[in-house]
Design brief:
- This protein is of the alpha+beta class and 246 residues long.
- The chain has two domains: 1-30 and 199-246, no CATH class; 32-198, Immunoglobulin-like.
- It is built from two helices and twelve strands; from the N terminus they run αββββββββββββα.
- The strands form three sheets. A five-stranded antiparallel β-sheet has the order 6-7-4-10-11, with no helix packed on it.
- Strand 10 and strand 11 (154-157) form a beta hairpin.
- This is YcnI family protein.
């Protein structure tokens, strides 16, 4: 009887620990994010807007990403996504901008829209863009994103970071920019395959590497959950053994 009670207690505590661990991890995974989230100032990079479907019954049917106009990106191209239509909207900037090379920019890509496909419940999709050169004078670029569901619901991912450091409800997807040479140390890098002069085969290799990195991140998360559960279970087991011996 004592062993059975200990087993039930261990199972309950372990389940609670697992739920707590997953509960802490999932909110961050459910946000629209940019991957990789860091790139080098002045360089080119290939970024993926990772869009998860957060609804139980409805699908995501359209994604609109707004590009910065205070620090416009001179060159933007996209990778086709099977089943989705993509539109690059170019237009005049609210005010001319002088870039790092001293050139005046009056027009740029203002928005990219993906539509016609769907992201079903429990799934996510990555929408890739090659951009550059990145500005040297700022530490980040923000890309407000609008996610539209099949039931007509619209979610705006545009909330600025809170002053107290806590996470906003719908944080704006942000690309952090670091000085050249610090990309690898910060978890990002200037992607040579994003440059227009790169060989055509290079992007495919880069995509494979990113997929592996994403899998590694998921594996690390699951490993962390397993460790947390194991520690709790071991503690309960040892406590039960001591009580039974006593």
């Amino acid at each position: 009887m004592a062993l059975s009670a200990i087993t039930r207690r261990a199972a309950a505590v372990t389940a609670g620990a697992l739920a707590l661990t997953i509960g802490l991890a999932l909110p961050a995974l459910a946000h629209v994010t940019i991957n990789p989230g860091t790139a080098e100032q002045g360089g080119w990079t290939k970024i993926a807007f990772r869009v998860p479907n957060e609804r139980d019954k409805d699908s995501t049917t359209k994604v609109e990403v707004t590009f910065p106009t205070d620090h416009p990106l001179p060159f933007v191209s996209v990778r086709p996504v099977p089943g989705w239509d993509v539109k690059l909207t170019r237009g005049k900037l609210p005010a001319p901008v002088v870039d790092d090379a001293g050139d005046k920019i009056t027009e740029a890509v203002l928005k990219i829209t993906w539509s016609g496909g769907k992201i079903d419940p429990g799934q996510f999709q990555e929408f890739e863009a090659s951009v550059g050169p990145l500005p040297k004078s700022v530490g980040s670029l923000q890309f407000p994103t609008v996610q539209t569901y099949s039931n007509g619901e619209v979610v705006n991912w545009s909330d600025a970071p809170k002053s107290d450091g806590s996470e906003a409800e719908h944080p704006v997807p942000t690309l952090k920019l670091v000085p050249a040479g610090e990309g690898d140390a910060a978890g990002g890098h200037a992607d040579a395959s994003a440059s227009p002069s790169a060989a055509p085969a290079a992007p495919a290799v880069a995509v494979a590497n990113e997929a592996e990195n994403g899998s590694d991140g998921t594996a690390r998360l699951l490993a962390g959950i397993g460790i947390a559960v194991g520690v709790v279970g071991a503690g309960i087991g040892i406590g039960g053994m001591r009580r039974s011996r006593g």
